[in-house]
Amino acid sequence: MKGFVRKRQALLSSPIYQSRASAATILVTTIPEAYMSEDVLFRIFNQFPGGVRYIWLNRNLGDLPEKAEKRTKLMEILEATECKLIKTAMKIETKRRKKLHTEMSSEIIEETITNSEQQTIHKYIPEKKRPTMRSGSIPVFSSLCFGKKVDTIEYCKETVSKINTEIEIAKATLNNYTPINSAFIQFNKQIAAHMAAQSVLASIPLAMTPCYNDIKPTNIVWSNLKLTYYQKKFRELIVLSATMALIVFWAIPVAFVGILSNLTYLTTKLTFLQFIYNLPSVLLGLITGLLPTVLLAILMALLPIVLRLLAKISGIPTTDAIDRYVQGSYFIFQVVHVFLVVTISSSISSVIVLIIQNPTSAGTILAANIPTASNFFFSFLALQGLSVASEVLLQIVVLISFYLLGKLFDNTPRKKWKRYFTLNNLDWGTVYPPFTNFVVISLVYSIIAPLMLVIAGVAFGLFYIAYLYNMFYVSDFPNDTGGLTFPRAIYQSFTGVYLMEIMLAALFFMAQDEHGLQSAIVQGVLMCVLIIITLGVQFMMSSSFDPLTHYLPVDAEEFSQLKISVPGKFAWAKMAISTVSRPLRSAYRTDTVNNMDDAVIEPYDNTMENAYMHPALREPQPIVWIPEDNLGIASAEVQNARTSGLNIAISTEGAGFDQNMNIKINGSPPDYIEMLEKNTFSRRF
């Protein structure tokens, strides 16, 4: 933990990190109505060092966010329809040339088209064959043929133009929208934000709390900013109940997987399962060996999706906080279902007959047979080490989606550009728990089955190589937690220590000599004492390092420049900058200098005033991006958009067709110019 705190403090103290807008910005929730004024908030927070730089009151924008989402969907439909029609027209023109058996040169064709102002899509696609769609206020009914039938292109253009105008009016009359009970406060100094996040901000109970620091504009869950304190608590209670229900009912399929792992032994005692021996030996081996592991992996892969949805429903306001919530709940699932349920179910299938024959010895029999579950975890860790590491390195799914799905579904320049220039996201909330659970399993069986340490060591070596390469060259991290998921994983690893100590204590207390008397009571008592000592160690670690992990110390700047010797037990902190590993310094420097997602203050606008506005107001007006063609249809569409009087823009910049009429791109979308510094591809190569 000392090493992590050094790196964490070096990160928070670095000039590059401090130059970010998020470094000095906090989110204040549950603000009383009397305080919902920029003047009042300024007087409250301007008491902190350096004072306040900007204040953004979050407002109830009504249906404006939904309209912005609708605009995005209509833009996608419009681009896809335009591209499809242009491609259809090119095919029609190609067939016409072949049918006429002429040798008309491309120069003559282009000249003819250029000289004719009537060369639009209408020449090749009759009015009756133009694509149509159903419009209506209720999308579900519209898609079921209940809406009015309209021309797709014209309807999308008119609707997008209308929404663009409404959003422009909303920007100009922003103060007319009612403020909600949250606001973003940006200070002139980073230390002020950390002090404010730890302060009691209001004399009214439950007001202006909780307060979040290090808020990034791209990580905000805007729909959760308007919740009151009691609404959040009610949602948290509902989500907690749903999570507990999942834990209980998810045990049924997981227990079935555990029974499959020891099915061979069970069939020797339960005669009605003898038909299993009629199966081919290869198939029987797959059922009892590989199938349980594969089924368990599939079951665990479905959980993060559900847990992330529950975290959002609970009212968490940022995606990085959602990641940390998912890390905690997903780890509980991993321990309960991947370890405890499988361990118990595997043992029960082995000893169920013995317990029936001698019920009074159930405890002793169970304690003696629990270690037999190590057979499953031997193969589980080995398979995970080989399969996960190879999957991470080979990227089979990404490879297939890039070459196969790209050809099938990337029918617009924008989709093709996203396929080429968007990296896979690595969410720490779902990455850490499986590996932390592997640590738990390894610790529990480290004494009972020491060979587990060898297998775990090899598996973690493969994990390290695969993920180190992935983190530097393959994946992107949209939800930057600043390393806060690491200490949580360290504390979660203590679960393995506790379970190991509890299991050993149980084995000692249940151990009997040849006379049926307990023979290891002293050892069991010592294990209980060791459990208490372990609790004390974890408590000391948490109380010592948690404040330094989450917040910047007041003396951070002074301490980093300190040249004199530091007392021995604090000497580790003096090396805050110098001890940061070279790969970390290189990666952080490359990432933060170029990926200025909020160091340029905000990703869409170069004015500070728009940094923490709702994306519906902050984003620039989108531009329809279609490919240039040799028939001049796309150019005519661009010109028509300029002269039609509609509030919509169309561009062909950086997109076109190749000789096989496939879309090709040689640049970014025209409305992405201001966001180039967020381009993951360009920042790494």
Structural class: alpha+beta
Tertiary shape: globular
Task: Count up the domains.
Answer: 2
Q: pLDDT under 50 segments (min length 5)?
A: 105-118, 563-607, 674-685
- Return Rg in Å: 31 Å
Strand % is 5-15%
What's the pLDDT, averaged over the residues?
Answer: 79
The main sheet orders its strands as 2-5-1-6
Oligomer: single chain
Helix content bin: 55-70%
How many helical stretches?
26
Largest sheet: 4 strands, antiparallel
Total strands:
12
Cα(first) to Cα(last) distance is 33 Å
Describe it for me?
Keywords: Membrane, Transmembrane, Transmembrane helix. Residues 599-671 form the 10TM putative phosphate transporter extracellular tail domain. One of its GO terms (molecular function) is calcium-activated cation channel activity. It is a single chain. The two termini are 33 Å apart. The protein has a four-stranded antiparallel sheet, covered by helices on one side. It has 26 helices and twelve strands. Helix 9 (229-261) crosses helix 12 and helix 17 packs parallel to helix 19. The chain has two domains: 64-173 and 615-684, no CATH class; 230-552, no CATH class. It has helices spanning 2-13, 15-18, 38-45, 64-100, 106-115, 139-146, 152-172, 190-197, 229-261, 263-269, 281-313, 319-357, 362-369, 374-394, 396-409, 413-421, 428-448, 451-473, 485-510, 521-550, 556-560, 571-574, 582-594, 615-618, 633-643, 680-684, and strands spanning 25-28, 52-59, 132-135, 148-151, 179-187, 211-213, 424-425, 475-476, 624-625, 650-651, 655-657, 663-665. It has 685 residues and is an alpha+beta fold. Strand 11 (655-657) and strand 12 (663-665) form a beta hairpin.
